[in-house]
Amino acid sequence: MDLQEKLFDRHKIGIYRHLLNNQSGIDYFSNDYLGFARNQEIILGIEKLKDKYQLTQFGSTGSRLISGNNIIMEDAEQFVSNYHNAKTGLIYNSGLDANIGIFSSIPQKGDVVIYDEEIHASVKLGIRLSFADKKMFKHNDLIDLEKQLNKTTLGDKIVAIESIYSISGDISPLKEIVKLCKKYNAYLIVDEAHSTGIFGHKGIGLVADLGLEKDVFIRLHTFGKAMGVSGAIVLSDLLVKEYLINFSYSFIYTTAMPLFNYIAIMSAYNLLERSEETINNLHNNIKFFNKLALQNNISKTEGRSPIKTVHTNSNINTDSLQKKIIDNGFLVKGIKSPTVKIGNECLRIIIHSFNNNNEIEKLVQLISDRSS
């Protein structure tokens, strides 16, 4: 077990990861789509809810199956479930914990999980921990998905997708995938991490916006992106919730989040309910970026998603473009192999509600003039 050699190899090919802090610049790289992470109204809402619940402790004290459960947690779960038009939900400490919990416990031996090739790494990890078989279909490719569904004849079929993909920003063809799942009697699980708070009426997400709640087996909404706090919820029916409580290791064997986290989640949703103008600002900024990107022939930037990718096609090119833009005062993030396939390297840009037209114009100019 030569850990040092593996780290050296990463250094050598330019993919060594390290932590940074105190980064200064204009934010075009965080998932804080609506600026909630820096919104003082959430803090004020937390104070009000703290008084309402007469909160006298900070930590949860343990797993929710031992000493850690609390009426605040159950209220938060029902509040968020109602917001997204779901019967019930179960809150996990993070989206990664939730995906691992879902995919390691629900698919059984003999079942097959059919997943989009761009699905988040946490889903792949969960599948790896299960006893189910797995098949991958080409990204957003309905023909290939149907091919994989048609080839699967034994066991239950589970299709795993994201409504908005975290790297490319592509939007999933949800209606068409729902039709295929119905045709082949497959269960559909949708990770809505990047549509939470920004798509649909009052940010209810793409599934609910399209009226597909009853057609989706499980939805996952996370709170660490547009919602500006932390945690995630698995939306389902009561049977699935009770199953996860009994069989999902990442729920059972972990200390619950501090009670303040659950209060923060409710406070964030209270703010979301009255944030129509903020959501509109985000989508106006996205449209403005798309318009300028089209005029400047910047690739992979169309569409309604706030996630924009500029293809660079190599790690070296990614580092070079990223450095140029950061040196000009913008915080952006390059996505390099092995996170993406070799040849699919890109610069990932995130549009926010708090960005402005002057910034966007300058950023697009920096991207379009790569040779300077």
Give a verbal description of the structure:
This protein is an alpha/beta fold and 372 residues long. The protein has two domains: 39-271, Aspartate Aminotransferase, domain 2 (3-Layer(aba) Sandwich); 274-366, Alpha-Beta Complex (Aspartate Aminotransferase, domain 1). It has 14 helices and twelve strands. The protein has helices at 3-12, 40-52, 71-83, 95-105, 121-129, 142-151, 174-183, 206-209, 238-247, 249-252, 259-273, 276-295, 315-327, 357-368, and strands spanning 26-27, 88-92, 112-116, 133-137, 157-162, 186-191, 218-222, 232-236, 307-311, 330-331, 333-335, 346-350. The strands form three sheets. A seven-stranded mixed β-sheet has the order 2-8-7-6-5-3-4. A three-stranded antiparallel β-sheet has the order 9-12-11, with helices on one face. The longest helix is centred in the last third of the chain and has 20 residues, at 276-295. The relative contact order is 0.16. The model has no long low-confidence stretch (mean pLDDT 95).
What's the gist of this structure?
The chain contains 14 helices and twelve strands. With about 375 residues, it is α/β, with parallel strands linked by helices. The chain is globular, with a radius of gyration of 21 Å.
Which descriptors apply to this entry?
Aspartate Aminotransferase, domain 2; 2 domains; 14 helices; alpha/beta; 12 strands; Aspartate Aminotransferase, domain 1; seven-stranded mixed β-sheet; globular; 372 residues
Distance from first to last alpha carbon = 44 Å
Rg over alpha carbons: 21 Å
CATH class group of the largest domain: Alpha Beta
What is the number of helices? 14
Structural class: alpha/beta
Q: What is the mean pLDDT? A: 95
